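If I may wish for something, please walk me through the protein I am sending here so I can picture the backbone:
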Amino acid sequence: MNQDLLAKYGGNVPRYTSYPTAAQFGDWVSADHYAAWLGEIDGAEPVSLYLHIPYCHKLCWYCACHTNITAKYSPIARYVDLLKKEMELVSRRLKVRPKVSFIHWGGGSPNMLSAEDFRGLMVAINKNFKISGTVENAMEVDPRSMTREKAESYIKAGINRVSLGVQDFNPHVQKAINRIQPFEMTRDIVGWLRGAGIGGINFDLMYGLPKQTLEDVIRNVDRAVELWPDRLAVFGYAHVPWMKSHQKMINEQDLPTSGARLKMADALSKRLVEHGYIQIGLDHYAKPGDPLTRAYLAGTLHRNFQGYTTDDATTLIALGASSISRLPRGFVQNTTSMKDYANTIDNGDLATARGVHVTREDHWHWAVIEQLMCQMRVDLKKVCQKLEIPPDSFSPEIFALKELEDDGLVKHRGATFEVTRKGRPYVRSIAAIFDQHLQDNTSRHSKVV
Protein backbone atom coordinates (compact mmCIF):
# COMPACT_ATOMS: atom_id res chain seq x y z
CA MET A 1 0.00 0.00 0.00
CA ASN A 2 2.90 2.38 0.75
CA GLN A 3 4.19 1.89 -2.79
CA ASP A 4 0.72 2.66 -4.16
CA LEU A 5 0.54 5.86 -2.12
CA LEU A 6 4.05 6.85 -3.21
CA ALA A 7 3.12 6.36 -6.85
CA LYS A 8 -0.07 8.37 -6.44
CA TYR A 9 0.97 11.19 -4.07
CA GLY A 10 4.78 11.17 -3.98
CA GLY A 11 5.37 13.29 -7.09
CA ASN A 12 6.80 16.78 -7.52
CA VAL A 13 4.94 19.55 -5.69
CA PRO A 14 6.03 22.81 -4.00
CA ARG A 15 7.41 22.95 -0.48
CA TYR A 16 4.92 25.77 0.18
CA THR A 17 7.25 28.21 1.90
CA SER A 18 5.30 30.86 -0.02
CA TYR A 19 2.11 31.18 -2.03
CA PRO A 20 2.01 31.80 -4.91
CA THR A 21 5.28 29.90 -5.21
CA ALA A 22 8.37 31.09 -7.05
CA ALA A 23 7.27 29.07 -10.08
CA GLN A 24 4.68 31.79 -10.70
CA PHE A 25 7.19 34.67 -10.60
CA GLY A 26 7.67 36.69 -13.78
CA ASP A 27 9.21 39.92 -15.03
CA TRP A 28 5.81 41.66 -14.97
CA VAL A 29 6.65 42.72 -11.41
CA SER A 30 9.22 45.50 -11.62
CA ALA A 31 11.35 47.70 -9.39
CA ASP A 32 8.60 50.33 -9.65
CA HIS A 33 6.11 47.89 -8.13
CA TYR A 34 8.53 47.08 -5.33
CA ALA A 35 9.18 50.76 -4.60
CA ALA A 36 5.44 51.45 -4.40
CA TRP A 37 4.86 48.47 -2.12
CA LEU A 38 7.69 49.56 0.18
CA GLY A 39 6.05 52.96 0.46
CA GLU A 40 2.86 51.33 1.72
CA ILE A 41 4.47 49.62 4.72
CA ASP A 42 2.66 50.48 7.94
CA GLY A 43 5.06 51.74 10.57
CA ALA A 44 2.94 50.19 13.32
CA GLU A 45 3.49 46.68 11.92
CA PRO A 46 6.76 44.79 12.54
CA VAL A 47 8.80 43.62 9.57
CA SER A 48 11.43 40.94 9.08
CA LEU A 49 14.78 41.23 7.34
CA TYR A 50 16.60 38.62 5.29
CA LEU A 51 20.20 39.10 4.12
CA HIS A 52 21.53 36.69 1.51
CA ILE A 53 25.27 36.00 1.57
CA PRO A 54 25.89 33.98 -1.62
CA TYR A 55 29.43 32.76 -0.98
CA CYS A 56 31.00 29.48 0.11
CA HIS A 57 34.56 28.14 0.39
CA LYS A 58 33.69 24.82 -1.26
CA LEU A 59 30.89 23.48 -3.43
CA CYS A 60 28.64 20.85 -1.85
CA TRP A 61 27.27 18.66 -4.63
CA TYR A 62 23.78 18.38 -3.09
CA CYS A 63 23.32 22.16 -2.81
CA ALA A 64 20.43 23.90 -4.55
CA CYS A 65 21.16 27.41 -3.20
CA HIS A 66 22.24 30.50 -5.12
CA THR A 67 25.90 30.70 -4.14
CA ASN A 68 29.39 31.35 -5.49
CA ILE A 69 32.63 29.59 -4.59
CA THR A 70 35.56 31.81 -3.68
CA ALA A 71 38.91 31.40 -1.94
CA LYS A 72 39.39 35.18 -1.76
CA TYR A 73 37.72 37.62 0.59
CA SER A 74 37.71 40.62 -1.77
CA PRO A 75 34.44 39.62 -3.58
CA ILE A 76 32.74 39.28 -0.19
CA ALA A 77 33.99 42.67 0.99
CA ARG A 78 32.68 44.20 -2.23
CA TYR A 79 29.33 42.48 -1.73
CA VAL A 80 29.06 43.87 1.81
CA ASP A 81 29.30 47.39 0.37
CA LEU A 82 26.51 46.53 -2.08
CA LEU A 83 24.28 45.28 0.72
CA LYS A 84 24.75 48.56 2.58
CA LYS A 85 23.87 50.51 -0.57
CA GLU A 86 20.78 48.38 -1.16
CA MET A 87 19.68 48.98 2.43
CA GLU A 88 19.84 52.72 1.83
CA LEU A 89 17.93 52.40 -1.46
CA VAL A 90 15.17 50.45 0.29
CA SER A 91 15.14 52.84 3.24
CA ARG A 92 14.55 55.83 0.94
CA ARG A 93 11.34 54.22 -0.33
CA LEU A 94 9.96 53.73 3.19
CA LYS A 95 7.74 56.44 4.62
CA VAL A 96 8.66 55.33 8.14
CA ARG A 97 11.46 53.36 9.77
CA PRO A 98 9.71 50.09 10.58
CA LYS A 99 10.56 48.01 13.62
CA VAL A 100 12.37 44.77 12.79
CA SER A 101 11.30 41.74 14.83
CA PHE A 102 13.26 39.01 12.97
CA ILE A 103 16.59 39.05 11.12
CA HIS A 104 17.80 36.02 9.17
CA TRP A 105 21.23 35.65 7.55
CA GLY A 106 21.14 32.99 4.82
CA GLY A 107 23.30 31.77 2.02
CA GLY A 108 25.61 30.39 0.93
CA SER A 109 27.61 30.61 4.12
CA PRO A 110 26.96 33.85 6.02
CA ASN A 111 29.76 33.02 8.46
CA MET A 112 32.22 33.75 5.67
CA LEU A 113 31.69 37.37 6.71
CA SER A 114 34.56 38.81 8.72
CA ALA A 115 33.71 39.99 12.22
CA GLU A 116 34.33 43.58 11.11
CA ASP A 117 32.02 43.35 8.10
CA PHE A 118 29.30 41.67 10.12
CA ARG A 119 29.44 44.47 12.68
CA GLY A 120 29.34 47.00 9.85
CA LEU A 121 26.18 45.44 8.43
CA MET A 122 24.54 45.47 11.87
CA VAL A 123 25.37 49.19 12.13
CA ALA A 124 23.75 49.73 8.71
CA ILE A 125 20.63 47.83 9.80
CA ASN A 126 20.36 49.99 12.92
CA LYS A 127 20.80 53.11 10.79
CA ASN A 128 18.04 52.24 8.32
CA PHE A 129 15.60 50.34 10.56
CA LYS A 130 14.51 50.19 14.17
CA ILE A 131 15.47 46.88 15.78
CA SER A 132 13.09 45.44 18.36
CA GLY A 133 14.55 44.74 21.79
CA THR A 134 13.31 41.16 21.46
CA VAL A 135 14.56 40.61 17.90
CA GLU A 136 15.49 37.08 16.85
CA ASN A 137 18.76 37.46 14.94
CA ALA A 138 19.52 34.11 13.31
CA MET A 139 22.47 33.02 11.17
CA GLU A 140 22.99 29.93 9.01
CA VAL A 141 26.48 28.57 9.61
CA ASP A 142 28.80 26.23 7.72
CA PRO A 143 30.90 24.63 10.49
CA ARG A 144 33.80 24.17 8.09
CA SER A 145 34.41 27.93 7.91
CA MET A 146 33.67 28.81 11.54
CA THR A 147 36.16 29.87 14.22
CA ARG A 148 35.83 30.51 17.94
CA GLU A 149 36.64 34.18 17.37
CA LYS A 150 33.89 34.55 14.76
CA ALA A 151 31.38 32.85 17.02
CA GLU A 152 32.13 35.21 19.87
CA SER A 153 32.13 38.32 17.65
CA TYR A 154 28.83 37.47 15.94
CA ILE A 155 27.14 36.94 19.28
CA LYS A 156 28.52 40.20 20.69
CA ALA A 157 27.12 41.96 17.60
CA GLY A 158 23.63 40.57 18.14
CA ILE A 159 23.28 36.98 16.83
CA ASN A 160 21.13 34.95 19.24
CA ARG A 161 20.26 31.87 17.13
CA VAL A 162 22.53 29.77 14.92
CA SER A 163 21.56 27.05 12.43
CA LEU A 164 24.41 24.64 11.81
CA GLY A 165 24.49 22.87 8.47
CA VAL A 166 25.23 19.25 9.38
CA GLN A 167 23.41 17.19 6.72
CA ASP A 168 25.10 13.87 7.62
CA PHE A 169 27.75 12.72 10.11
CA ASN A 170 28.76 9.56 8.21
CA PRO A 171 32.15 9.86 6.40
CA HIS A 172 31.12 7.81 3.35
CA VAL A 173 28.06 10.02 2.79
CA GLN A 174 30.09 13.19 3.33
CA LYS A 175 32.52 12.01 0.67
CA ALA A 176 29.65 11.31 -1.74
CA ILE A 177 28.34 14.90 -1.38
CA ASN A 178 31.78 16.60 -1.24
CA ARG A 179 31.25 17.90 2.29
CA ILE A 180 33.84 16.58 4.74
CA GLN A 181 32.78 17.67 8.23
CA PRO A 182 33.83 15.45 11.16
CA PHE A 183 31.47 15.12 14.12
CA GLU A 184 34.14 16.63 16.36
CA MET A 185 34.07 19.84 14.31
CA THR A 186 30.35 20.30 14.91
CA ARG A 187 30.76 19.36 18.58
CA ASP A 188 33.47 21.98 19.09
CA ILE A 189 31.42 24.73 17.45
CA VAL A 190 28.39 23.94 19.60
CA GLY A 191 30.69 24.28 22.60
CA TRP A 192 31.98 27.65 21.41
CA LEU A 193 28.47 28.95 20.80
CA ARG A 194 27.14 27.85 24.15
CA GLY A 195 30.27 29.14 25.86
CA ALA A 196 29.67 32.55 24.26
CA GLY A 197 26.08 32.58 25.52
CA ILE A 198 24.09 31.71 22.39
CA GLY A 199 20.40 31.28 23.18
CA GLY A 200 19.34 28.94 20.37
CA ILE A 201 21.11 26.25 18.33
CA ASN A 202 19.51 24.53 15.32
CA PHE A 203 20.79 21.61 13.22
CA ASP A 204 19.98 20.86 9.58
CA LEU A 205 19.95 17.17 8.67
CA MET A 206 19.15 15.51 5.33
CA TYR A 207 17.90 12.15 4.16
CA GLY A 208 17.89 10.68 0.67
CA LEU A 209 21.56 11.53 0.10
CA PRO A 210 23.82 9.33 -2.07
CA LYS A 211 25.10 6.15 -0.39
CA GLN A 212 22.96 6.94 2.66
CA THR A 213 21.23 4.01 4.38
CA LEU A 214 18.48 3.68 6.97
CA GLU A 215 21.11 2.88 9.58
CA ASP A 216 23.04 6.03 8.60
CA VAL A 217 20.11 8.38 9.22
CA ILE A 218 19.31 6.77 12.58
CA ARG A 219 22.97 7.14 13.55
CA ASN A 220 22.80 10.80 12.48
CA VAL A 221 19.92 11.42 14.87
CA ASP A 222 21.67 9.74 17.78
CA ARG A 223 24.88 11.68 17.17
CA ALA A 224 22.99 14.95 16.80
CA VAL A 225 21.12 14.38 20.05
CA GLU A 226 24.45 13.95 21.85
CA LEU A 227 24.83 17.71 21.27
CA TRP A 228 21.19 18.40 22.24
CA PRO A 229 20.27 21.17 19.74
CA ASP A 230 17.14 23.18 20.46
CA ARG A 231 15.69 22.50 17.02
CA LEU A 232 16.33 20.23 14.06
CA ALA A 233 15.17 20.64 10.48
CA VAL A 234 15.20 17.38 8.52
CA PHE A 235 15.02 17.81 4.74
CA GLY A 236 14.77 15.32 1.92
CA TYR A 237 17.48 15.82 -0.70
CA ALA A 238 16.07 17.27 -3.92
CA HIS A 239 17.98 15.92 -6.92
CA VAL A 240 17.45 18.49 -9.69
CA PRO A 241 20.57 18.35 -11.92
CA TRP A 242 18.65 20.02 -14.76
CA MET A 243 18.47 23.10 -12.52
CA LYS A 244 21.76 22.74 -10.61
CA SER A 245 24.35 21.26 -12.97
CA HIS A 246 26.87 20.50 -10.19
CA GLN A 247 24.44 17.87 -8.88
CA LYS A 248 25.54 15.82 -11.90
CA MET A 249 28.61 15.04 -9.79
CA ILE A 250 26.31 12.78 -7.76
CA ASN A 251 25.91 9.28 -9.18
CA GLU A 252 22.16 8.76 -9.47
CA GLN A 253 22.66 5.03 -8.89
CA ASP A 254 23.86 5.91 -5.37
CA LEU A 255 20.56 7.64 -4.48
CA PRO A 256 18.04 5.80 -2.30
CA THR A 257 14.74 4.80 -3.89
CA SER A 258 11.52 6.65 -3.05
CA GLY A 259 10.51 3.73 -0.85
CA ALA A 260 13.82 3.87 1.02
CA ARG A 261 13.47 7.64 1.46
CA LEU A 262 10.01 7.17 2.99
CA LYS A 263 11.42 4.66 5.49
CA MET A 264 14.24 7.09 6.32
CA ALA A 265 11.85 9.97 6.98
CA ASP A 266 9.65 7.76 9.16
CA ALA A 267 12.61 6.38 11.12
CA LEU A 268 14.03 9.87 11.68
CA SER A 269 10.71 11.10 12.99
CA LYS A 270 10.22 8.19 15.37
CA ARG A 271 13.79 8.39 16.67
CA LEU A 272 13.64 12.11 17.37
CA VAL A 273 10.32 11.73 19.18
CA GLU A 274 11.85 8.90 21.24
CA HIS A 275 14.61 11.32 22.22
CA GLY A 276 12.01 13.79 23.52
CA TYR A 277 11.61 16.18 20.59
CA ILE A 278 8.22 17.41 19.38
CA GLN A 279 7.50 17.10 15.65
CA ILE A 280 6.61 20.50 14.22
CA GLY A 281 4.70 20.43 10.96
CA LEU A 282 6.27 18.29 8.27
CA ASP A 283 10.01 18.30 8.92
CA HIS A 284 10.98 20.34 12.00
CA TYR A 285 11.57 19.10 15.55
CA ALA A 286 12.01 21.11 18.73
CA LYS A 287 12.45 20.68 22.46
CA PRO A 288 9.19 20.74 24.47
CA GLY A 289 9.77 24.24 25.88
CA ASP A 290 11.10 25.83 22.69
CA PRO A 291 9.22 28.88 21.30
CA LEU A 292 8.58 26.92 18.09
CA THR A 293 6.88 24.15 20.07
CA ARG A 294 4.80 26.66 22.03
CA ALA A 295 3.65 28.30 18.79
CA TYR A 296 2.76 24.91 17.31
CA LEU A 297 0.71 23.92 20.36
CA ALA A 298 -0.97 27.34 20.46
CA GLY A 299 -1.87 27.23 16.76
CA THR A 300 0.20 30.35 15.99
CA LEU A 301 2.96 28.67 13.96
CA HIS A 302 3.84 30.22 10.60
CA ARG A 303 5.72 29.15 7.48
CA ASN A 304 8.04 31.22 5.30
CA PHE A 305 11.18 30.88 3.20
CA GLN A 306 13.15 29.76 6.27
CA GLY A 307 10.64 26.98 7.00
CA TYR A 308 8.59 26.87 10.19
CA THR A 309 8.82 29.98 12.34
CA THR A 310 7.27 32.03 15.11
CA ASP A 311 7.67 35.10 12.89
CA ASP A 312 4.21 36.62 12.32
CA ALA A 313 5.33 39.68 10.33
CA THR A 314 3.41 40.07 7.07
CA THR A 315 6.33 41.89 5.44
CA LEU A 316 9.79 40.47 4.77
CA ILE A 317 12.37 42.79 3.27
CA ALA A 318 15.08 40.74 1.61
CA LEU A 319 18.50 42.07 0.65
CA GLY A 320 21.14 40.65 -1.66
CA ALA A 321 21.37 38.86 -4.98
CA SER A 322 18.53 36.33 -5.58
CA SER A 323 16.78 37.25 -2.30
CA ILE A 324 12.96 37.27 -2.21
CA SER A 325 10.88 39.88 -0.40
CA ARG A 326 7.31 39.27 0.74
CA LEU A 327 4.85 42.16 1.02
CA PRO A 328 1.05 42.20 1.36
CA ARG A 329 0.70 43.10 -2.33
CA GLY A 330 3.14 40.53 -3.71
CA PHE A 331 6.54 38.84 -3.85
CA VAL A 332 9.67 40.41 -5.34
CA GLN A 333 12.94 38.69 -6.21
CA ASN A 334 16.27 40.36 -6.86
CA THR A 335 18.31 39.33 -9.88
CA THR A 336 20.32 36.14 -9.38
CA SER A 337 23.20 37.47 -11.51
CA MET A 338 25.92 38.91 -9.29
CA LYS A 339 27.08 41.16 -12.13
CA ASP A 340 23.59 42.55 -12.76
CA TYR A 341 22.97 42.97 -9.03
CA ALA A 342 26.18 44.97 -8.59
CA ASN A 343 25.58 47.18 -11.65
CA THR A 344 21.97 47.92 -10.69
CA ILE A 345 22.74 48.77 -7.07
CA ASP A 346 25.75 50.89 -8.06
CA ASN A 347 23.46 52.81 -10.44
CA GLY A 348 21.15 53.61 -7.52
CA ASP A 349 18.29 51.34 -8.60
CA LEU A 350 16.50 48.49 -6.88
CA ALA A 351 17.67 45.10 -8.17
CA THR A 352 14.20 43.66 -8.78
CA ALA A 353 14.14 41.05 -11.57
CA ARG A 354 10.78 39.35 -11.16
CA GLY A 355 7.90 38.63 -8.82
CA VAL A 356 4.18 38.05 -8.59
CA HIS A 357 1.11 40.00 -7.50
CA VAL A 358 -0.92 38.41 -4.70
CA THR A 359 -4.67 38.42 -5.21
CA ARG A 360 -7.48 38.19 -2.66
CA GLU A 361 -8.00 34.57 -3.67
CA ASP A 362 -4.28 33.90 -3.14
CA HIS A 363 -4.59 35.14 0.43
CA TRP A 364 -7.57 32.84 0.96
CA HIS A 365 -5.79 29.77 -0.35
CA TRP A 366 -2.56 30.54 1.51
CA ALA A 367 -4.55 30.73 4.76
CA VAL A 368 -5.62 27.11 4.19
CA ILE A 369 -2.26 25.85 2.87
CA GLU A 370 -0.35 27.38 5.78
CA GLN A 371 -2.75 25.84 8.31
CA LEU A 372 -2.34 22.42 6.73
CA MET A 373 1.44 22.70 6.54
CA CYS A 374 1.79 24.04 10.08
CA GLN A 375 -0.95 22.39 12.11
CA MET A 376 -1.79 19.36 9.93
CA ARG A 377 -5.43 20.39 10.14
CA VAL A 378 -7.72 23.20 8.98
CA ASP A 379 -11.20 24.32 9.87
CA LEU A 380 -12.52 25.68 6.58
CA LYS A 381 -15.59 27.18 8.23
CA LYS A 382 -13.42 29.25 10.57
CA VAL A 383 -11.17 30.30 7.69
CA CYS A 384 -14.19 31.54 5.72
CA GLN A 385 -15.54 33.39 8.75
CA LYS A 386 -12.17 35.02 9.50
CA LEU A 387 -11.66 36.11 5.89
CA GLU A 388 -15.33 37.11 5.52
CA ILE A 389 -15.80 35.04 2.38
CA PRO A 390 -18.71 32.79 1.33
CA PRO A 391 -18.85 29.47 3.22
CA ASP A 392 -18.77 27.51 -0.05
CA SER A 393 -15.53 29.17 -1.27
CA PHE A 394 -13.61 25.89 -1.09
CA SER A 395 -16.28 23.54 -2.43
CA PRO A 396 -14.15 22.24 -5.36
CA GLU A 397 -11.26 21.49 -3.01
CA ILE A 398 -13.52 19.71 -0.52
CA PHE A 399 -14.76 17.50 -3.34
CA ALA A 400 -11.16 16.75 -4.39
CA LEU A 401 -10.22 15.83 -0.81
CA LYS A 402 -12.71 12.95 -0.84
CA GLU A 403 -10.30 10.77 -2.80
CA LEU A 404 -7.51 11.49 -0.31
CA GLU A 405 -9.89 10.61 2.50
CA ASP A 406 -10.72 7.31 0.81
CA ASP A 407 -6.97 6.62 0.70
CA GLY A 408 -6.64 7.35 4.41
CA LEU A 409 -4.54 10.53 4.12
CA VAL A 410 -7.12 12.86 5.67
CA LYS A 411 -10.20 12.59 7.82
CA HIS A 412 -12.86 15.16 8.44
CA ARG A 413 -15.58 16.11 10.82
CA GLY A 414 -17.86 18.83 9.56
CA ALA A 415 -15.69 21.50 7.95
CA THR A 416 -12.52 20.43 9.78
CA PHE A 417 -10.01 18.37 7.80
CA GLU A 418 -7.10 16.70 9.59
CA VAL A 419 -4.03 15.01 8.14
CA THR A 420 -3.69 11.47 9.45
CA ARG A 421 -0.45 9.87 10.59
CA LYS A 422 -0.50 7.94 7.34
CA GLY A 423 -0.97 11.15 5.39
CA ARG A 424 1.65 13.26 7.15
CA PRO A 425 4.50 12.46 4.71
CA TYR A 426 2.18 13.59 1.89
CA VAL A 427 0.99 16.84 3.46
CA ARG A 428 2.49 18.85 0.56
CA SER A 429 0.32 16.87 -1.87
CA ILE A 430 -2.68 17.48 0.37
CA ALA A 431 -1.93 21.21 0.50
CA ALA A 432 -1.54 21.20 -3.31
CA ILE A 433 -5.30 20.56 -3.57
CA PHE A 434 -5.71 24.23 -2.60
CA ASP A 435 -3.04 25.52 -5.01
CA GLN A 436 -4.85 27.32 -7.83
CA HIS A 437 -1.61 27.90 -9.73
CA LEU A 438 -0.12 24.42 -9.78
CA GLN A 439 0.44 23.36 -13.37
CA ASP A 440 0.71 19.89 -14.87
CA ASN A 441 4.43 20.54 -15.42
CA THR A 442 5.80 20.17 -11.91
CA SER A 443 9.44 19.47 -12.78
CA ARG A 444 10.59 22.66 -11.02
CA HIS A 445 9.50 21.25 -7.69
CA SER A 446 11.01 18.56 -5.50
CA LYS A 447 9.51 15.16 -4.78
CA VAL A 448 7.16 14.91 -1.80
CA VAL A 449 9.24 12.16 -0.15
